[in-house]
Amino acid sequence: MLEPGNNDELPPIPGKRYFTIGEVSDLCAVKPHVLRYWEQEFPQLKPVKRRGNRRYYQRQDVLIIRQIRSLLYDEGFTIGGARQRLMGETAKSEVTQSQQIIKQLRLELEQVLKILRR
Questions:
Q1: Structure-model confidence comparison of residues 37 and 14, the more confident one
Q2: 31: domain CATH number?
């Protein structure tokens, strides 16, 4: 496992749809058993499970794992603190997305109203 102060550059994420646990382990510099443990601790991590309970991670999962790794190893958060931080960021991004959707709908409705008034 990496030391908390180790700031090695992580390799770029290839343009694949699914990654095995071994590939994610290499991409995120975290051992497979740690990834399996994090799945239990962080509800955001939900890899697809197929034949024989094999895990397949998507790009979003890899990004979340890198974020968890950074919070735990670089910023010194505890598991509980990192979980709260991620849940807070998830809630903020959902609010922002909802606001963007509402703005877009409003603009579209205003355009429809202009067309109807003609």
A1: 37
A2: 1.10.1660.10
State how far the Cα of 97 lies from the Cα of 93, in Å rounded to an integer. Answer: 6
- Asked if pLDDT for residue 4 goes beyond 60, the answer is no
DSSP class of 10: P
Q: What is the pTM of this model?
A: 0.69
CA–CA separation, 95 vs 14, rounded Å?
30
**Letter string b/e over residues 31-49, b meaning 16 or more CB atoms within 10 A of that residue's CB:** eeebbeebbeebebbebee
In this structure, the chain runs to a length of: 118
Residue 112 included in any domain: no
Residue 23 lies in a domain: yes
Domain residue limits at 23: 19-91
